[in-house]
């Protein structure tokens, strides 16, 4: 099994027809069919169900498609990084970002970097903090923007911004006596929380002997704000997310509680020496 065979297989898997894939690859159909049969013979499995109307993937083919895409992506990253090792003036940088990093990227320095070095390509991968840390451990991405709290030994980091939690309050629930809230003020309203902080919030509520109604738990802080805008409850999210996404239907109230402060961090594996390209990216923050 070689990279060319994997490229041929992916082309057929994505096109659903050998004829269409051959046209995309600028080759004749018989050599393409031969390469696919060679790949199946080498692996000892059938990868494609062939019919007069096209092809579909067998379970083995579906599994190989996922691995093939990862292998080709890794090859592309390896080729790019080796070629740009000298000066970091060109290449592809794989960057993980969380949904609540809105406003942190792209920043002015990063825009300057890509303007001065137009051959630098940024590939973004969106996931939650622990999903991105897992991608870093598998070397599927180069660097990530994540948010505390998290536990992940073996990472070098650079702090980007520390901020408080805020309540995004629809007008129907905006009966608080002060613009700045205490945690106890949240006891009487339905809450919409970002799952990333669920354990932190529940620990705090238990310590304060509170049992607020959690109306919704979601995986994206922007979704929490959207639900607050729809008057489904009061969203508790990082301040920067609220400021970037909330609208006229809600008010943003600062929550003064030190344990609920959170920090955005740029992280990368500490056991590696950053390539010139990665170092330029780190320096842009």
From TrEMBL:
Gene3D superfamilies per record: 3.40.190.290, Winged helix-like DNA-binding domain superfamily/Winged helix DNA-binding domain
Gene Ontology cellular-component terms listed: protein-DNA complex
Spans through the membrane: none
Name of a matching Pfam family: LysR_substrate
UniProt-recorded Gene Ontology molecular function terms: DNA binding; DNA-binding transcription factor activity
Domain HTH lysR-type: 1-58
Family: Belongs to the LysR transcriptional regulatory family.
Protein name, as recorded: LysR family transcriptional regulator
Organism: Levilactobacillus suantsaiihabitans
